Amino acid sequence: MRTTPAPVPAGSPATPATPDTPTDVAVGVIGAGRVGAVLGAILDATAGFTLAAVSGETTTTRERIADLLPGTAVRKPTDVARAADLLLLTVPDDRLAGVVESLVGSGAIRAGQYVVHTSGKHGLAVLQPAADLGAHVLALHPAMTFTGTAVDAERLPGCVFGVTAATDDRAFADHLVAVLGGRPVRVAEEQRALYHAGLAHGANHLVTLVAQAMDLLTASGVADPAGTLRPLLTAALDNALADGDAALTGPVARGDRRTVRAHLAQITEHAPSVLDTYVALARATVDRTAADGRLAGGRVAALHETLSAALPDAEPLAPVDDAAETERTLL
User: In terms of domains, do 61 and 210 share one?
Assistant: First the structure.
């Protein structure tokens, strides 16, 4: 591993390496799953990096390695670590600490080596045993969902990587993110879990929400729920990212309690597994709309009462007073 400037791949947003940025870097990947195999393939195709070895235990992982990393040596984790100048630990969050301790305990980590994990939750503390041996430790989390296929490499350009690194290691961290096509954003050690919660809540829970919405449309007889939702969801996502709460529309944001009651009744009858999600998100929508002044106190209370009453074991609601409801709407 040398420390002379590395060439930047054509079309990459990477900035040129500094004189202290390592090149001729042997890369090892422990846990070549959806993330590790894709990042390993990108680095192997990048000047200054060579994929030395990877590890993977499951049949699916071995198939992914054969597809994305053909000809790459598949070895046990300790051998991968010993062969690597840059070691990528792309294992599940809950296994990361144990993997680090095992590698350190077996003598597979050495001073001067770069040990990098891609966990969103963890920062540098989980890598402290490696740092104690003189390794450079980095936390680089790509804010992207991965399929474990070649399409992921096409999605990475412009992707944010949440970076936690010691001051002396930031230049290499930024260079590594750049050659992967991304852009670094600093995340403090103590804020890693909060940062990751924001991403998981937005992306993972969005999948659940969209899948449930498609279930409701299917139950209503719509033949193409995905095609029906796509333009609406695309516009809603764009508006939300641009305008935040101001983008909220629909019956809850308008205070249309009778419409909400009709939703709840139909969901309870045809898709009861969706009810808790609908109620929880509707409550959050009521509160966020009320906070910006669009819903008056009476309608906020009425909506919360309606939502609470829809849950199992709740007391039945009295019929809506149309005159009172109309008066609230006109206020």
Answer: no
Distance CA 52, CA 40 (A): 10
Average pLDDT, the chain: 89
Q: Which two three-digit tokens encode residue 176?
A: 């590594």
CB 24 within 8 A of CB 46: no
Closest by alpha carbon to 121, among 86, 162, 151, 167? 162
265 and 142: one domain? Answer: no
H-only helix segments in the chain: 34-44, 59-68, 77-83, 93-105, 128-131, 151-155, 170-179, 192-219, 225-243, 251-254, 257-270, 275-291, 297-309, 322-330
Identify the domain containing residue 131 by its residue range: 25-187
pLDDT-based confidence at 312, cuts 50/70/90?
Answer: confident
Q: Is the pLDDT of residue 12 over 80?
A: no
160-165, strands of its sheet edge to edge: 49-55, 25-30, 86-89, 114-117, 136-142, 160-165, 183-186
**Which residues are within 8 A (CB) of 150 and not within 5 positions of it... i.e. 6 or more apart?**
41, 68
- The count of domains in the chain is 2
Compute CA distances 130 → 115, 126, 134, whole Å: 7, 9, 7
Count of Cβ atoms closer than 10 Å to residue 137 Cβ: 25
* Cβ-contact 255, 287 below 8 angstroms: no
28-53 average pLDDT score: 95
Residue 312 lies in a domain: yes
